[in-house]
Every structure is written in C-alpha cells, then in structure tokens.
Amino acid sequence: MPAAPPVPPCPDTPNCERTQRAFEASPNRLYQAAQAALADLNPVSCTTDPNDRSAQAVYRVALVFKDDVHIAVRPGKNGGSVLHIRSASRVGYSDLGVNERRVRRFFRALAHHF
C-alpha cells in the first residue's frame, strides 16, 4: 500500500493550491523556518506536530471565510528536505487566487528565515 500524501490532495475546484519544493536544509531546520513563515502570515490559529514535522494553520479571509493551510517537511535526497504545502478554502468554488497568493507569500516569508 502506498504511503499517504504528506498533505491532503486538492479537490476538483479552483479554490486550493498544493505544491512542494526541495531545499538543501535539514528537515529540522526547514521545519523551524516553515513554522516562523506561517506565523509571519498571521494565522487565526496554528497547531504543530514537531514529531511529524507538520503544521496546520487557519487564516481568515474578508473576516468571514476560513482557509486551511497544511505543511509537512520530509527528508529529501543528500541530506536535504522537501516542504509540502496545501492552502485551501473551506467553502465556495473559486477563491479568486487567494490560496495561490498565500502560498507565494509563504515561500517569500520562508526565504527570510534562512
């Protein structure tokens, strides 16, 4: 049986962004930086699981809607690591690009923590 994906898949609607990027940093270092980047985006709440190197954050959009962000860091090749991220709206069909922009902002924030 194949391993479960580190972050949930996106639905067949355009209100979700899911991607991954490889880094030369160790998994622990990348996870620490990713936690700080999530905090920089001011979530309503954030829970972390250091043992699994994962986190789930909730962001509020327009004071009404909530979006969920999941990250997971996994060991990569040659001592590096891979960061998996998913940002998705809880309701609605389209998010007008909000989740894609949030993922881009996350990676910009992440770069400031290295």
Please characterize this protein's 3D structure:
This protein has 114 residues and is an alpha+beta fold. 25% of the residues lie in helices and 36% in strands. The protein is built from 2 helices and 5 strands; from the N terminus they run βαββββα. A 5-stranded antiparallel beta sheet has the order 1-5-4-3-2. The longest helix is centred in the first third of the chain and has 14 residues. The termini are far apart. The model has no long low-confidence stretch (mean pLDDT 93).
Structural class: alpha+beta
Radius of gyration: 14 Å
Strand order within the widest beta sheet: 1-5-4-3-2
Q: Write down the overall geometry.
A: globular
Number of helices: 2
Alpha-carbon distance between the two ends: 36 Å
Low-confidence stretches: none
Mean pLDDT reading: 93
Order of helices and strands: EHEEEEH
Biggest sheet architecture? 5 strands, antiparallel
Strand content: 35-45%
Got a strand count? 5
What proportion of the residues is helical, as a percent range? Answer: 10-25%
